[in-house]
Amino acid sequence: MAPLSSLQVDEARQIPLDAILTSQGLHAHREGSTARYKNDQFNIVTSGHGLWYDNAASIGGRGAIDLALHLCCSVQPRLASPAQIHRALEWLGELSHIPLKPLGTETLEQTTREPFESQAARLAIRDDARWPMVRHYLVRSRRLPHDLVEELHARGDIYASFTEARPEQTHVCFAHRSIGGKIRGATIRTAAEGSGFLFSIGEKQAAWFTVGDLKTAQSLVVVEAPIDAVSYQALRSNKETAILATSCSHVFTPILEASHARKWPLTIALDNDRAGHAGAERCLADHAALYPANPAPFRQCPVLKDWNDDLRAAISLSHGRGL
Q1: Which residue from 82, 262, 264, 315 has the least number of CB within 10 angstroms?
Q2: Torsion angle, alpha carbons of 281, 285, 288, 290, to 10
Q3: For residue 32, is pLDDT > 80?
């Protein structure tokens, strides 16, 4: 195994993440301050300062070398052996056709991406005439409580929308609010059962779809999807608890920071599947590294895959009993 020079290592670190991912046949879908690269195998989100996270594998890291370890060696960067690191560097060297960028360029690019407001003007165009259709989807198909859905709609946290490119499709838009209450992003999905069409725009690391009042909350629960947040509230109603949806299987650092600053007990209620379990384990590890003196978050799982599955099962069971 021939040693690699420090120059080769430095050059490898400078390879931009988007160029690496594009070279593997993945194409970016911009989501505000992040970009998503997705196919049948990967679901990788990149953000500022060279950070990336693969939601499909619940593995993340920083920079080109960590990404190469994941893509070519299928190893978690923190657990890589010297031989695997060497292989990853050689693999990056084989991508020598990728143009290098000066260090710090990627951070600059993040700050010049399309603002949320202009994204929303194209991708989350509000149309109240479609609200009855969206309400029917949420209440009848997803079995969410009518009163809670209407309350969230009245607050502007859920509304019917469409995109400029596909005006014939009706979407449900879930607004992401910051701790201060400002809308800074959104999760959007087609208002149709089994559609699977879901994407985010704007901020989702420091702004989230929220059920409950962050200003008065005494505890915090983190789930994956906005529909799960409403479902969790329906199943385990508690006015003193705020429920955040991360729109992925990862608990972002700003959530841990907010929980620590406000002394909120934190419950990790991600999905009951491989990605949800891995995301919870990573959250526990991140929390222990950041706040070793604090009590660990509590891991809570739905019985089925997610909280909406549990809600629909509970309603079906109660109807079957004639309740």
Answers
A1: 82
A2: -130
A3: no
196-215 per-residue burial string, b: 16 or more CB within 10 A, e: under 16: eeebbbbbbbbbbbbbbebe
The answer to whether 245 and 228 are in contact (CB under 8 A) is yes
pLDDT digits (tens, 9 = 90+) for 124-170: 999 999 999 999 999 999 999 999 999 999 999 999 999 888 899 89
Query: Which tops the pLDDT comparison, 255 or 112?
Result: 255
The residue ranges of every structural domain in the chain are: 6-111, 117-320
Q: What is the DSSP letter of 208?
A: B
The sign of the dihedral angle between the CA atoms of 244, 247, 251, 253 is negative
Q: Tokens 């702004």 label which residue?
A: 207
CA 167 to chain centre: 25
C-alpha closest to that of 137 among 170, 174, 176, 167: 170
Secondary element (H or E) of residue 298: strand 298-299
As its CATH architecture, domain 6-111 has: Alpha-Beta Complex (3.90)
SS3 per residue for 27-70: CEEEECCEEEEECCCCEEEECHHHEEEECCCCEEEEHHHHHHHH
Terminal Cα-to-Cα distance of the chain (whole angstroms): 70
Report which of residues 252 and 47 the model is more confident about: 252
DSSP assignment string, 250-262: ---HHHHHHHHHT
Which pLDDT belongs to residue 258? 93
Q: What is the model's pLDDT at position 4?
A: 54
Please give the average per-residue pLDDT across 225-250, as a whole number: 92
**Average pLDDT, integer, range 284-309:** 94
Q: What is the pLDDT of residue 87?
A: 81
Instruction: Provide the sign of the torsion angle of the four alpha carbons 60, 63, 69, 74, taken in this order.
Output: positive
